[in-house]
């Protein structure tokens, strides 16, 4: 009886579904986090009778076949890149991206990573860095005795040094975009990596056509809809229970068959 193995694939699929939903809920308050959903596809089918097969010498044909599916498998986890809400922080080094784009970060091994988390800080050398101490790319250094930092919507960074009334331009925050954003690989710490699926990073300026703006003094909240996630979690639980019930029913039927004398 194939029902046992078919239902087992359904239970494994729902376990994956629950894992994805649980991760979404756990990161409901993670800055710049993008929720994901599990995508599934059916497995191959075993054909018992082909549709269109002849059923008589007169040429009549079977209008439908007998195809038994062998279950389900996880096709992938799709990241949903919708915009998160804006959280005011009153910190001049906190910036949020309102629209498309990612900040580029220089990792310790020299590689590039990308993030939507604009919780920037200053290093001991005055460099603008991430919460992990990694330098943003291009690098920006805030001079000593800086009283305030202004970052406009186009990413231009200016500093008021000491008693000067005219700000000093320090540089510009650039962003990176990708043809296929869901194809980027998440690696933790709010970082994503470019892959062959995502395509190469395209360096752009904030405010360019199709690119987001910089909002100083804000952070982007996660785009997790907790109510929807709880609803999906209940649905996954019910699907898991139904698959387990299928296994129980198949076992009872096999038991009854074995007891036939």
Structure summarized in a few sentences:
This protein has 261 residues and is α+β, with helices and mostly antiparallel strands. 22% of the residues lie in helices and 31% in strands. It has two domains: 3-81 and 224-258, no CATH class; 86-220, no CATH class.
Structural features:
two-stranded antiparallel ribbon, Flagellar basal-body rod protein FlgG, 261 residues, LlgE_F_G-like_D1, 31% strand, flagellum, 22% helix, 2 helices, alpha+beta, cilium
Written overview of the protein:
22% of the residues lie in helices and 31% in strands. It is α+β, with helices and mostly antiparallel strands and 261 residues long. It folds into two domains: 3-81 and 224-258, no CATH class; 86-220, no CATH class. The strands form nine sheets. The protein has a three-stranded antiparallel β-sheet, with no helix packed on it. Strands 1-4 form a two-stranded antiparallel ribbon. A two-stranded antiparallel sheet has the order 2-3. It comes from Thalassococcus profundi.
The assembly state of the depicted protein chains is: single chain
SSE topology string? HEEEEEEEEEEEEEEEEEEEH
Mean pLDDT: 92
Largest sheet: 3 strands, antiparallel
End-to-end Cα distance: 19 Å
- Order of strands in the sheet with the most strands? 11-12-13
Family: Belongs to the flagella basal body rod proteins family.
InterPro entries: Flag_bb_rod_N (IPR001444), Flagellar_basal_body_rod_CS (IPR019776), Flagellar_FlgE/F/G (IPR020013), Flg_bb/hook_C_dom (IPR010930), FlgE/F/G-like (IPR037925), FlgG_G_neg (IPR012834), LlgE_F_G-like_D1 (IPR053967)
Main location: other
GO biological process, one term: bacterial-type flagellum-dependent swarming motility
């Amino acid at each position: 009886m194939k029902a046992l193995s078919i239902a087992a694939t359904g239970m494994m699929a729902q376990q994956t579904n629950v894992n994805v939903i649980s991760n979404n809920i756990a990161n409901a308050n993670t800055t710049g986090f993008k929720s994901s959903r599990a995508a599934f596809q059916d497995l191959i089918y075993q054909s018992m009778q082909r549709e269109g097969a002849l059923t008589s010498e007169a040429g009549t044909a079977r209008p439908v076949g007998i195809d038994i599916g062998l279950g389900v498998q996880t096709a992938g986890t799709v990241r949903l890149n919708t915009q998160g809400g804006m959280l005011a922080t009153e910190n001049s080094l906190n910036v949020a991206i309102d629209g498309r784009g990612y900040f580029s970060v220089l990792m310790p091994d020299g590689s590039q990573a990308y993030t939507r988390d604009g919780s920037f800080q200053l290093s001991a050398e005055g460099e603008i860095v991430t919460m992990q101490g990694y330098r943003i790319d291009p690098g920006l250094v805030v001079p000593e005795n800086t009283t305030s930092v202004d970052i406009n919507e186009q990413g231009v960074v200016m500093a008021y040094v000491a008693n000067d009334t005219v700000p000093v331009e320090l540089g510009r925050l650039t962003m990176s975009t990708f043809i296929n954003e869901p194809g980027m690989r998440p690696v933790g710490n709010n970082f994503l990596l470019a892959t062959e699926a995502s395509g190469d990073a395209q360096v752009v300026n904030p405010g360019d056509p199709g690119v987001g703006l910089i909002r100083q003094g804000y952070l982007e909240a996660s785009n997790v809809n907790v109510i929807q996630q709880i609803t999906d979690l209940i649905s996954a639980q019910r699907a898991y229970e139904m698959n387990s019930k299928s296994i129980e029913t198949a076992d009872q039927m096999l038991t009854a068959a074995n007891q036939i004398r």
